[in-house]
Write a structure and sequence with these properties.
Helix 4 crosses helix 6. This protein has one domain: HUPs (Rossmann fold, 3-Layer(aba) Sandwich). It contains six helices and five strands. It is α/β, with parallel strands linked by helices and 151 residues long. A five-stranded parallel sheet has the order 3-2-1-4-5, sandwiched between helices. 41% of the residues lie in helices and 21% in strands.
């Protein structure tokens, strides 16, 4: 599908949850050609879900070291994509990851959610479900899941 200007325009805004780990490279490498092809705006989101992050406002807490490191990580990733010519924004959310990802996707009018998945590696994932599975089951927005390959 092409737009009147000739650009492939099926995706305008792609939400990419990142976890501040090496797994992020999998989805970020995968999404680059798609984003370039569609000229999509990228929105990188990281959801801090520790106790201090979840209750920071209610408890009037200063940013934790984890939050500061997450913010720096997002800014590094933003600069990396911007230097390659991508329109990219970052969002540092706090709370339950799937819920925050879905809320951001809705609020920002995202056309696609692209995330890395580890598969079921731990008993907690099997019992409670992974963030990727929760997102996939709770949205009508298309979700692209790319499996992180283990060495």
């Amino acid at each position: 599908m092409t737009t009147p200007s000739g650009e492939f325009g099926i995706y305008k805004t792609i939400l990419i949850p990142v976890e501040n780990s090496a797994a992020d490279d999998t989805i970020l490498r995968h999404i680059r050609p798609l984003a370039k092809l569609t000229s999509a705006r990228l929105l990188l989101i990281h959801v801090a879900d520790g106790f201090a992050a979840r209750y920071q406002n209610q408890l009037n807490l200063e940013d934790s070291e984890e939050i500061r490191l997450d913010r720096e990580y997002l800014e590094r990733r933003r600069a990396e994509f911007q230097s390659d010519g991508f329109a990219v924004e970052v969002l540092l959310a706090r709370g339950e990851p799937a819920q925050e990802i879905l809320a951001a996707a809705q609020r920002e009018g995202c056309d696609l959610i692209a995330m890395a998945t580890h598969g079921h590696r731990f008993i907690k994932d099997v019992l409670l479900g992974s963030v990727a599975e929760n997102v996939r089951h709770r949205t009508s927005i298309p979700v692209l899941l790319v499996r992180v390959m283990q060495d």
